Amino acid sequence: MWTFLVRRLLQSVVVLLGVTLISFISLQIGGDPTYLFVSENASTEEIERARAVLGFDRPLHIQYLSYVWDVMRLDFGRSLTFRQPAMDVVLAALPATIELTLFSLILAVLISIPLGIVSALYRGKPVDGGIMTFAMIGQSIPNFWMGIMMIMFFGLYLRWFPISGHVPFLVPLFAGDFARAWANLPQSLHYMIMPAIAVGSYTLARNARLVRSSMLEVLQQDYVRTARSKGISETRVIVHHALRNAWLPVITMIGLEFGFLLGGVVVVETVFSYPGIGRLVFNAINQRDIPVVQASVIVLALVFILLNLIVDLIYARLDPRVKL
Amino acid sequence: MPNETPSSASALLDAEGPATTPSTWRKEVLRGWRSMVASRWALFGLIILVIAILVAIFGPSLAPFDPNRQNILLRLLPPGADGPRGTVFLLGSDALGRDVFSRLLYGARVSLLVGFAAILVGGTLGVIAGLVSGYFGGWVDDVIMRLGDIQLAFPFILLAIMFLVVLGPGLMNIILVLGIGQWITYARIVRAETLSLREKEYVEAARAMGDSTISIMFRTILPNIMAPLTVIASFNVASVILSEAALSFLGLGVPPNVPTWGSMLSESREHLLSNRWWLAVFPGLAIVFVVLAFNIIGDWLRDYLDPRLREKD
């Protein structure tokens, strides 16, 4: 258990160093990065001063080391548009993004698994064809366009759901204010349902196909035949024998799909004016607020690495063949 | 046995083998066509793709208007509304009085160009990296694969955002960023296949005959892994087109004077509340159809070219 954990943590550290290297390169790739941090009509002296203050006049390797040090302290400098450290701005927006990501993941998993199972059980029947067609189309729809269409139809035409905004649930929950978290929950879900479907649609479609092929594979195994021949009810065979094994590839996939989800969240938040990191990044892009863009991207990468670590641990727990 | 994978694909794609005479080529094409017609979905995908490519090539001569021609008097007109001097805005006009239909036709160029070019960039890098990694192994392999792991630790779109914010919008920039974002997908596949082919007798034979390493990698091994590569590339074009649309939507794509489907959708957001639905519906449908076509064709290619990769069905 501990060796696995330590090895996995070391891997994450290496990946994190890589992340700092890549983001450092992205700053330098356009030439002197000082120009990214000063206004367009800054005078030569102002640029000189900024270069010295920001340390861009030092040798590259020194700059990189100090960059890594800054990242370790989660210090990305001051936002150019908000008058506070970029990290504070990002951390304030993080809970909303995590709420949306988790909710869309839960939604995608809860819907895709039954769809995949039904599809596998009725293989080749019209139900199967229908679900798989639906999945194929779901994989081809840009998530932000899906958001726009839902806003037009369910938001503005039917008026079922609010088209923008957010009611926090995780923030009061982690602050220990359970009463408020509980009271906020229905509103929170009501605001999140459309963005969550938009974000999760790709994952939903992908997973439905994966569950189907995984189920089909498992259903041909000897132990399923044995279970059936013992006269156990078909439901029990599917839930206890087949599904427990068909799960595993799906869990691995979910870990990888956090990346898609986080990426999707960035774009979809903009569509719904949802106050998370995505909208923050969008505004920061338009105002060329580089510290905020950098801080957001690195924080999301951190979240992604952490979630993958958790998924790996869950996987190791669920699959007895993986020894901890 | 050089042909341990006796799929028709490896026969088709094995440039070294004697199988590729013109008449077998014709037979293969015919067989592919029949299989495509038999699967209605694949035919549907092919038709959409052909239309999209034709539109991308001939768009300028098909478009009834200059896509950037503004007309403040004819703003936000619904589909079918009369344009200037007896013309019609087939799919309506946008906030600056530009013809949505013409912009849609021009948008196909960017989507397909970026899609194919990024795959070419990413595929070339990935194939070279994968061949080197799989053929030589050792520390070279370690370094290349760890680099890929690090890249995969980033949600890709974030990486693209970070670079494009600094580089600024531009067709070349977006192609490079999206292309470099894909290399590891190809590198992994090519590496895995190279590892297994490296020990095959026909590779050994080539080595014994004194072929150079480069020649063995590119002329003996590469032709035998074209089948899985083609399948991956097809799905990859679909996802690159989606990424390009998302980046254009965020304002990080090509310069603003070039119409793209993503930027059209971005502009449409300001007119949602006033119910100018045509601004949002048509560019989105265009993306869905093209992406769907590539996904369908990818599915079909997987079944057709390489039965080993087939999903159970």
Helical amount among residues of chain B, as a percent range? 55-70%
CATH class of chain B: Mainly Alpha
What's the alpha carbon Rg of chain B, rounded to whole Å?
23 Å
DSSP summary, beta strand count of chain B: 2
Task: Give the DSSP E fraction of chain A (strand runs of 2 or more residues).
Answer: under 5%
- On the 0 to 100 scale, the average pLDDT of chain B is 81
> What is the strand arrangement across the widest sheet of chain B?
1-2
Strand pairing plus helix content of chain B: what structural class? Answer: mainly alpha
Largest sheet of chain A: none
Unreliable stretches covering 5 or more consecutive residues of chain A: none
Number of helices of chain B: 12
For the record, the count of structural domains of chain B works out to 1
Number of helices of chain A: 13
Brief sketch in words of this structure:
Chain A has 324 residues and is mainly alpha-helical. Chain A has helices at residues 2-28, 34-37, 44-54, 60-72, 86-121, 126-138, 143-157, 170-174, 178-219, 222-229, 234-271, 277-286, 290-318. Chain A starts with a helix and ends in a 6-residue tail after the last helix.
